[in-house]
Amino acid sequence: MIEKSSGIFGQNALVLKRMIRIGKIRALHGFRGQVVLQHELKNPKLLKAGTALLLEIWPESYIPFFIKEINHTASNECLVLFEETESREAASAILRKTVYHPDSETVKTALVNSWAAVIGFKLLDQDGRYIMQIDDILEHIGGLLIEGKYQGRDMLIPFSEDLLIETRPDKKEIVLQIAEGLLDL
After folding, report:
1. What is the pTM of this model?
2. CA 28, 106, 69, 78: dihedral to nearest 10 degrees?
3. In this predicted model, which residue has the larger pLDDT, 82 or 115?
4. How far apart are CA 98 and CA 26, in angstroms?
C-alpha cells in the first residue's frame, strides 16, 4: 500500500509499507509509449487503469507509475500505457525494469510462478561453485530459464525441478545441476 506522509521540508513522501514483485517490463510496443509487462499473476485483471505500480528504476529505488490504459494480451503478458510514459522515448527508460505491486496482501495469492521467490539468490553449480546472481526466472516454451550475468555477459540457464539439487533459503542460494559445457557457450 502506498501512503502519503509528511517528508523532508514538508513535502509529501511516499512510504512503502509492503510490496511484492509481480513481473518485469519486457519490451516497447508501438509509438505511444506502451510497454509489454510480463507478469506472474493468476488474475491479471487485478491490474486496471488507475492502479499504481512500483518500478525499480535504480537499485532499491521504487517509483510509482500509474496505469493509464491496459490490454491483457496473454495469460502472462499485458500491454500497459503508464501516465508517466506517453512517448516511446519515455517508455524506453523503463525497459527491463522490475515491477512491484504496492500491496502484497492483494496479490500474494495471485502469483503463479512460485520460483519468483529465488530472484536475487545466488546460483551455485553441482560442485558448489558460484555461477551468478539470479536476476529473473523466465517462462519459455520449453520450460523455465534462469537469467543472470555470468563473467560479465547475459546468460540464460535451463531450470527445472529435475535439475534442482538443493534450495538454501537461509543463505539465499540454490544449487543446480548444470550441464557440462553450458557455461562455455
Report:
1. 0.58
2. 40
3. 82
4. 9
